[in-house]
Amino acid sequence: MLALLLSEAGELEVADVVREPGVRMSAVNLYEVVSRLIDRGWPNDVARERIAEVAFEPVAFDADAAYAASLLRPLTRQAGLSLGDRACLALAQRLGVPAITADRAWTTLGLPITVQVIR
């Protein structure tokens, strides 16, 4: 999402993904996107407006999501994955869809989750 909003490398790949119907993002990852935009000086209302232009459905990070992400911690700790990374992977696993990332380290983890790297 950040690649798309900030016109970074991989933005075209993300644009292709978000054109598909039913694209979802964990609320944890939405938090990360908004936080990084605000860190870059974006006003909150501008961040909300630009994010709203991207067609995706935010998914609540509930107890089931927390447990699923927790189960990924021992498998991803050595690669330095964050809670947001694990939230994304857990959601992809639950939905049976690829996890989209710019972090190539995700592909080395041997997880039963398809990972699509955008750059």
- C-alpha-based Rg, rounded: 14 Å
Any idea what the CATH superfamily is called?
Answer: 5'-nuclease
The helix/strand class is: mainly alpha
Strand tally: 4
The CATH architecture term is 3-Layer(aba) Sandwich
Q: Regarding CATH, which class?
A: Alpha Beta
Largest sheet: 2 strands, parallel
Strand order of the largest sheet: 1-2
What is the percentage of strand-forming residues? Answer: 5-15%
Instruction: Determine the N-to-C terminus distance.
Output: 13 Å
Total tally of structural domains: 1
CATH topology: Rossmann fold
| Outline type | globular
Helix content: 40-55%
Give descriptors for this structure.
two-stranded parallel sheet; single chain; 119 residues; globular; mainly alpha
List the helices and strands and how they pair.
Elements: H1 2-5, H2 11-18, E1 24-26, H3 27-39, H4 44-52, E2 57-59, H5 63-76, H6 83-95, E3 99-101, E4 115-117
Parallel strand pairs: 1-2, 3-4
Helix pairs in contact: 5-6
Q: In brief, what are we looking at here?
A:
By secondary structure, the chain is mainly α. It has helices spanning 2-5, 11-18, 27-39, 44-52, 63-76, 83-95, and strands at 24-26, 57-59, 99-101, 115-117. The protein is 51% helix and 10% strand.
Provide an overview of this structure.
The protein has 119 residues and is mainly alpha-helical. It has a single domain, classed as Rossmann fold (3-Layer(aba) Sandwich). It is 51% helix and 10% strand. A two-stranded parallel sheet has the order 1-2. Strands 3-4 form a two-stranded parallel ribbon. Helix 5 crosses helix 6. The longest helix has 14 residues. It is globular, with a radius of gyration of 14 Å. The relative contact order is 0.17.
